[in-house]
Amino acid sequence: MKNEIIITAQGHQGTLERMQNEFSALKLWEAPDRDAALKAAAPRLRALAHFGHSRVDSKLMDALPKLELIANFGVGVDQIDLEAAKQRHIIVTNTPDVLNDCVADTAIALVLNTLRKFPQSEAYLRSGYWPTRGPYPLATSVGGKTLGILGLGRIGEAIAKRALAFGMQIRYHNRHKKNVPYAYDANPVALAKNSHVLLIVTPGGAGTAKLVNAKVLDALGPQGYVVNVARGSVVDEPVLLRYLREKKIAGAGLDVFEHEPKVPAEFYALDNAVLFPHVASATIETRKAMGDLQVENLHLHFAGKPVKTRVV
Q1: What's the pTM?
Q2: What angle do helix axes 13-22 and 284-302 make, rounded to 10 degrees?
Q3: Is 260 part of the annotated catalytic residue set?
């Protein structure tokens, strides 16, 4: 008999197919009556697989009194109420490390595209402007610039290695200093002041909400750039929009937004912003590895073994 799980939302197709083959899966987003579906399954459900932006809060946990495990697809767990999980002795897992390289690649791609304006120059060519208006205007070099990494975790360190290969200098800010050969700044304002590019790779959640605000952007200044591969919530988005419009900073490269997939339309008109639709880990290989780790945690728990990547 297959172990039963609940799946909160649509996610990576291959992982969903595995879960439906290897478990008895309740797909919550397809239930005609969510509350009735939860009530009927609650006495048997010990594990939940979480995807996307659906919220796993105390109300959902209370509706599943037998719940023992929340297995998250992704590193960020800001959509899960961790304190509520702790109080109910529910284990939470995520999928770290397997996506480090892809996210670091995307971060460097955003740095290159934002400073060199490659997407804008391609649009210029496709619009037929090259023969009539001449060469595309000059952009900004990456080599020799200082990259300030806000959140030097495992992904941040992978980004730093790549940036060094492009001739960049590295600075960073964390809550605590690390034993790394990079200059440390005591706060985000100091980091921004000392950097040409401020790259955000912190966790999301209440602790980092609007961490990059007007003070940080003022310190970055009109020649500085922001790149965000963390969470949209880490940046004060309306302030960032205003600073880009008024050229108070030079540009931004963004893979994440505060209310994605809804993106403020004002971003689309900006020629000093490069916008990606949250694709940092979006490769076939990486998403499969994330799903494999999520499913492995589920199987380990049902087998009575320690999970591989416990958060709480």
Answers
A1: 0.95
A2: 20
A3: yes
